[in-house]
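We treat protein structure as text, and this decision shapes the records that our systems exchange. The remainder of this section carries one protein's record, kept here as part of the documentation:
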Amino acid sequence: MTNTVINTSAINYPDLVEKIKGWGEELGFSQLGITDIDLSAHEQALENWLAKGYHGNMDYMARHGLMRARPAELEPGTVRVISVRLDYLPTDAKFAQILTAKEHAYISRYALGRDYHKLMRKRLQQLGKKITTYCENVNFRPFVDSAPILERPLAEKAGLGWVGKHSLLLNKEAGSWFFLGELLIDIPLPLTSQADEKPINHCGSCVACIKICPTKAIVEPYVVDARRCISYFTIESPDPIPLELRPLMGNRIYGCDDCQLICPWNKYAKLSLERDFQPRLKLDQITLLALFSWHEQDFLEKLQGSPIRRIGFQSWQRNIAVALGNAPYDETIIQALEEKLKDTTDLVAEHIHWALAQQTARETDNAVKNGANSRLNARLIRSIEKGLPRDA
């Protein structure tokens, strides 16, 4: 059924908002809110964060500067932002089961299925088109992690929740296991939350997320130093992983969910109804060695349509090498690491050498405990002869 197109001067805005909410529900969004574009209250915090270098080598953040807090500079004419939430928690997340199985790979649960960027952007585009079929002369632009915009403060202003001490958005009825997206639009829709109404922060005195962070990346409430964050250096950074942080990674090879896992509000998290967000390729229970055996063509083909693919094969192998170094001693792991050294990049080789040193040190400890000194000495001699580093 086609809607009658209405001129913008004759729009019944409250009625349109109700239609937008209905369309959002039809498109599968878990929640939708509308806010203005005033983020001036967040500009100083953004400037301070950038000045301290907490963005690491994500140069685009510094390059865009305060544009991130000024949507109208990003898309001229914008007066409102439609902010949406889409739950992604898979049915059987296997959190503790995999984090404690050190020979397995832990992948952030948002990345187990298909890439959410395309799915959400397509639906936001559809939402925009539905609005334009209702009223003419409306311009819109969808964003899903694809523009310099402060999406969490916008979502907070739109009434979707509050920004927690881990810097993620929290919702009393849905926790934090959800994606955010925005539709910038140039018509003055009524707000779903009062512009001068400060969202209630329900974190209280809880600091569980700060305490649980493996690398202490949450340097103060609401402030994350990306340069210490596992998600940053396994996904965003192409550089060598800092030596002092490698042992803290454990078996996390793509992202980290610890601050969400510990959050009390996530007992209210909703399971995703999206088939695309369910695990593919058994990535929720796969071993490190299985992933390390992939060739680049395997990586590209198997992870087609996955958000993981964007980090590239080199970073993928770098991350797995570190996790293998953190795994319990296993002769098979050493063999796999040594075999990979025959044909890899300098960056990956550096992390393989580190991993071999960790495995050798672990064998040393085991040998001492078991009194197997002759086998230990043979291993140490071989390590020295190969020129492998023996410590971190």
User: Anything to note?
Assistant: The longest helix spans residues 346-370. Confidence is low (pLDDT under 50) at residues 387-392. The CA atoms of residues 156 and 162 lie 5 Å apart. Residues 287-392 form one domain.
